[in-house]
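ok trying again, last paste got cut off:
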Amino acid sequence: MNIALYAGVAVLVVLAGAIVFILLKKNSGTRGLLRAKQEAQEILNGAKAQVEKITRETTLEARDKLKAQEEEFEHQTREKRRKITEMERRLVHKEENLERKFQGMDRREREIGGKERRISQREKDLDGQEEKANILIKKQMEELERIAGLTQEDAKNQLIKKIEDEARLEAVQVVRLVEEETRAKSQQTAREIISQAIQRSAAEHVVETTVSVVDLPSEDMKGRIIGREGRNIRALEMATGVDIIVDDTPEAVILSSFDPIRREMARLAIQRLVADGRIHPARIEDIVETVKQELEDKIKQEGESAAYELRVQNIHPELIKLLGKLHYRTSYGQNVLQHSKEVAFLAAAMAKELGLDMPVALRAGLLHDIGKAVDKDVEGTHTELSVELCRKHGESEPVIQAIASHHRDVDFPSIEAVLVQAADTLSAARPGARRELLETYIKRLEKLEGLAKNFEGVSKAYALQAGREIRIMVEAQKVSDDKASLIAKDIAAKIKNELDYPGQIKVTVIREMRAVEYAR
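nice, full thing came through this time. structure:
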């Protein structure tokens, strides 16, 4: 309202100024002055009317605004009162609920207290009854032990032993039943049994020595090999990586090295130097380098010759080279390349007889020990290295799997793999294939027989086939057929745990019933 008043006063001031200005502009004269006064009066009256109009409008607008604000205030006040009332109602309701919950908790607490007292009393009663029961049980056990003549521990041991024996017999019966059903229904099992029977075959093989000895034409040649202040022998050892032993052995020097190829290189180099007659450090280096190149060519030729002899095609050149290296590697005195060729031949022959994949058996047999060519330089077993090399150089998966299982590190993936394992055992584990001291051999056979004779019910035990098989005679009156099978399994397990032996040992338990009568 004050703003409207100020606006009206401002308008009046402006109008008054305008009137004065107009009066000043008028020329002198009464008529002009009168007219000016009239005009000024009209303007003043119009301004007053305008001011009154503005004042009324402003007053009405202010009243409307004030009324609207009062209504808004009343509305907000009513809303706040309503909310406060609602909150009070909720608080009262919650308070009532809490009161009811407290009352319920008090009631439950009283009930739980009563139950705890009753449970505590029952526990005391049970403890008393348990103590009485223990006393009665103890008295009964003492009476039973007195009547039976056995302690509780002895009775328990006898019962456990009886249950174990019955369980083992039942297990043997189940195993025999499963084996019979499998043998009757499965062609795969039949082929495995046939392949195991073929292992009775045998072939001759020459055992080679791992000691390299170089014959000399005379004792004077030892001095020339040693050289002035040992220069020649040091040059030979540095060039070949082999220890050269010059001792009292007449007209011979001994070569010592863990690497058979280095040992062969040193042997050929010394023979070449002796034949040439010029033995000095410079000549030694030339001869060793020449022999090294010739030996690499010879290694390749040996590998190619083995592959050609067995008619195995498409072998990677690196595998050919590694096969040649096996010619200079021995295992228990057996030449590894010759052993690999023999395994390949036997596996292929058995595969052909059984109508299986002969090329897979042939390749797996030839390459099964290829890892022995690098096992001195690379970590890992020779089986793992063989698998890695064959996979690296593109051999097929059936061949690789057969190689991986030839020592039963993994389950046999195919019948061809079984044949490779059988051929490997046949070549390596038969009598005469590998060198073994006579005394060690005899002790192993005696220990094998003694181990079998320690079992209850065994009357006799004989080691056959150079320890590859043990035959055990059991007493028919004490041992049943099922018990005989169980004894065979137990003896096989004990041999595996207590003896060291190459290949495998066949355990045969024989039980026969003899009825004897005399006619008099």
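cool. The CA atoms of residues 205 and 433 lie 6 Å apart. Confidence is low (pLDDT under 50) at residues 193-210.
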